[in-house]
Structure formats: structure tokens, C-alpha cells
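does this look right to u?? nicotinamide-adenine-dinucleotide version
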Amino acid sequence: MASNLKFTKELITFLGKAVIALLETLVFTFIPRPRKNVAGEIVLITGAGRGLGRLLALRFAHLGSVLVLWDVNKEGNEETCRMAREAGATRVYAYTCDCSQKEEIYRVAEQVKKEVGDVSILINNAGVVTGGDFLNCPDDLIEKSLDVNFKAHLWTYKCFLPAMIANDHGHLVCISSSAGLIGVNKLADYCASKFAAYGFAESVFIETIVQKLKGVKTTIVCPFFINTGMFEGCSTVRPFLLPILEPEYVVEKIVDAILKEKVYLYVPRFLYFAMVLKSVLPVKIALLLSDFMGVFNIMDGFVCKKKKH
Ligand SMILES: NC(=O)c1ccc[n+]([C@@H]2O[C@H](COP(=O)([O-])OP(=O)(O)OC[C@H]3O[C@@H](n4cnc5c(N)ncnc54)[C@H](O)[C@@H]3O)[C@@H](O)[C@H]2O)c1
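got this back:
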């Protein structure tokens, strides 16, 4: 009897809170969510030497943030640093850091804490891709994919999350991928690393919820293919549903999601629908649909650069 009463009470509480959350979501569908102010926030971007990382740095420069730029490519990173200053950033710090090396991450992170301060927005963006049939992928490149695209996220969280918790203030941003939602032909190790990054970021997000760390936010980003050069040669056969995205557009969406403290961002929107289809369709139909969408052959034109940073 007592347990029935407890169950009923918990059910009513849950339903009440769910209705309030639903109403809140509905309201924010029509009224844009307020954007937070990131002026003065210390924003660390890994892989800032080109592509999305560089564009993110320029956007945060415009927003008045203090920039900490990491990349294994010293020249590219210093060029981003120079461009960020031109874009109005007054405090920009470039560090050469190979994110595939745990000890190097720990060493450079200590330097950042001493020279700049506590990072309050951490954007794990650095990434590499092998590309090709799994059995033809060299072991060292598979390990590199996992080290840069996933394990670096573990080590950077260890370095910077404690201060965010202590200050009850911070934002963890995981740049995963649509390849972190759906397996892709010829991207097995990349997908594994992106699924892992997603799962890790989502699990720590749940930890922050359970521990009532209201000031520590998470944003997980899953874009489809982007025209940055990383996936040079890849093309889509259904551009109206799954276009190859322009980097400026993706960065605009990412920054908007961070400022609105959105937890999940999939670009383009069709990916939200694709995830529902993946969960509900019989496998044979899902495979037929993937084939129709050209997803099986998306890597066919890939220009393999065998990046070995
Ligand atoms: N380009 C796409 O189609 C696409 C799609 C979805 C997700 N993503 C993800 O977005 C992120 C950015 O991709 P991008 O298209 O800008 O790629 P990019 O190749 O243009 O830039 C990646 C950056 O990461 C740096 N980097 C590589 N290895 C590193 C290491 N060991 N340590 C430090 N820095 C390192 C590179 O030097 C480079 O500056 C990646 O995580 C990528 O997986 C890209």
C-alpha cells in the first residue's frame, strides 16, 4: 500500500514536471531562446589551425572571448591567432599541442592554467580521418583516429572540468559527427571514434545533471559532411536532404547552439528525422533508404591524405 502511494506520488511529480518542460519547449519554439554573453570567457578550441576550429576562433573573437588555440600544426595555429587578433580579439594564446598524446595534453593544459586561467568553454574539435575499407586501414592511423577524435576528449575533461565544477560555471562542447550517429561505409574507425566521443560527452552531461551542477553545460554537435577539405572528394546524391555543408553555416549553427546552451545539435535538420527512422524502420528498409540516399557510396571519391600528425 505504502509503495503504491509512493509510486503514485512519484508518477504525478514526473507528469507535472514533464508538462512544464513541454510547455517551456513549446514557448521556445516560437520565442527565440536568450543567448548567453561569452565576452571575457576563456574559450579553448582544439584543432584551431584550420577548418571549423579556425572559424570558431574568429566567431568567438567577435564575441569578445579570450581565446586559447591548440593545434599540432604550429603554422596554421599561429595564422588563426593572427586572424583572431585582426577580428578584434585582445587576448589570444596559441599553443602547439598534439592532442593524440595524453602527456602533452596534460603538460600544455597546466601551462594554460598558469598563463591564461581556468578554461570556461572547452571545444573539442580537433579531428583526423583515415578513410577506406577497415581491413586496409593501417593500425597506426586507426589508433590516431581514436586518440585525437575520442581519447583527447577524456584527457581535456580531466584537465578543465574540475575548475568548471568548482566555479559552477563552464561549457563542454563535443564536435562529433553524423558519423557518430550512423555507421558509414569506409569510415569504421572514424565512426567508432565519433560514437565514443558522443557517448562520453552525453554520459558526463548526465553526471552533471545527477550531481545538480547547473552551471556546467554541454553541447554535442553532429554535422553531416562539410566542405573544409577533411573529406575532400566526397559527394552526395541527394543534396536537397543531405547537402555537403558550408563551414561558415555549420559554425554559425554551432555558436548559436552554444550561446543558447542547446544540448544536441544535428546539422542538417534531416538528421533528427534520420535518427527516428533508424530506430523504427525494419533494417532491410533502412538499408534500402540509405542506398537510395547514396550514403553507401559517399566515400567513393574520397581523396586520402593519410594525415599522420
Ligand atoms: N569536415 C567534415 O565533413 C566534418 C563533418 C562532421 C564532423 N567533423 C568534425 O569536425 C571537426 C573539425 O573538422 P574540420 O573539417 O575542420 O577538419 P580539418 O581537417 O579542416 O581541421 C582539423 C584540425 O585539427 C587539427 N589536428 C589534427 N590532428 C591533431 C592533433 N593530433 N592534435 C591537435 N590538432 C590536430 C588539424 O591540424 C586541423 O587544424 C573534426 O572533429 C571533424 O571530425 C567534420
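The chain has a mean pLDDT of 95. idk if thats expected tbh
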